[in-house]
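Appendix C: a fully annotated inverse folding record. The material below is reproduced so that readers can follow the format used throughout the book. The structure is listed first as tokens, followed by the designed sequence.
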């Protein structure tokens, strides 16, 4: 499928008083010359919208990455950077955006062939980083992320024209069922939920802490869960989940003693470059939605 003309919007959202379902017109897996997945893995992703790799990264690699995050999150001189999103208490770091540019280590991690090759296979092209971030959920105080489709926001607020992006979440701590792991609704990626309301100017300043605009109607969520259920992406540190840009996902708050840390890389096809935001406002800052479209050159291992 060719790239959609930016003047035509197949996925209008935030223009009606009620949420509604719009059929997906984009492929889930794009054809290309990349062959990193088996037929079984590809078919599973097509049907369910996600794919999990257990222990893709070693405990040594995870330990090095986690040390880097701890160092960054404890650096008070950086907490004033716009890339650092603090919890509502303003005490703990909730997220660090543009992590692949703030850290050379994570700059190499996003090019590690173990994840880049999978993204290229799913998207059928070379890829670039649309967004990178680390999400931290400290024990007892980590807040929830409400149900949402990333594409709905990226389309409306960043100008991403097509569903040709995939997220990769690498677990840096063990994800239990009780410390706020990522939850997905299998099969929900096949339908686009057009959300109600309108987008406030500079909406990202609020939505990165608590999202309200761009969230689906509860009745639609109920129907999606009745059809596909909910899968909790539990796993050891070093496990990785890839999930489609349009899949409904979220996570509970963390009131357990166990912190949860994950790094996210959003791979977008170089053939799906951003246009003007479909909400009609100015684009979000580059550290949230990058407009640097150079393709990634992968490395065998980020530590080498």
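Designed amino acids, in order:
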């Amino acid at each position: 499928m060719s790239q959609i003309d930016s003047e035509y919007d197949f996925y209008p959202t935030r223009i009606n008083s009620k949420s509604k379902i719009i059929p997906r017109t984009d492929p889930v897996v794009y054809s290309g010359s990349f062959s990193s997945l088996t037929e079984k893995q590809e078919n599973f992703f097509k049907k369910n919208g996600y794919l999990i790799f257990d222990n893709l990264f070693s405990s040594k690699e995870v330990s090095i990455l986690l040390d880097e995050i701890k160092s960054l999150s404890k650096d008070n001189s950086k907490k004033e950077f716009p890339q650092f999103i603090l919890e509502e208490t303003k005490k703990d770091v909730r997220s660090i955006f543009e992590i692949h540019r703030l850290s050379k280590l994570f700059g190499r991690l996003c090019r590690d062939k173990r994840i880049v090759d999978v993204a290229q296979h799913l998207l059928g092209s070379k890829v670039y980083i649309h967004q990178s971030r680390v999400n931290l959920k400290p024990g007892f105080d980590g807040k929830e992320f409400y149900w949402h489709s990333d594409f709905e926001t990226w389309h409306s607020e960043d100008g991403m024209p097509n569903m040709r992006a995939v997220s990769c979440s690498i677990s840096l701590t063990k994800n239990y069922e009780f410390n706020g792991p990522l939850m997905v609704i299998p099969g929900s990626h096949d339908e686009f939920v057009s959300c109600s309301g309108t987008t406030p100017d500079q909406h990202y300043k609020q939505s990165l802490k608590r999202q309200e605009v761009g969230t689906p109607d509860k009745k639609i969520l109920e129907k999606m869960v009745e059809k596909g259920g909910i899968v909790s992406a539990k796993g050891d540190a070093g496990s990785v989940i890839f999930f489609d840009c349009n899949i409904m996902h979220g996570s509970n708050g963390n009131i357990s003693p166990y912190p949860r840390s994950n790094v996210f890389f959003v791979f977008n096809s170089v053939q799906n470059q951003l246009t003007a935001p479909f909400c009609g406002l100015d684009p979000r800052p580059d550290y949230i939605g990058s407009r640097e479209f150079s393709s990634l050159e992968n490395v065998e291992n980020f530590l080498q």
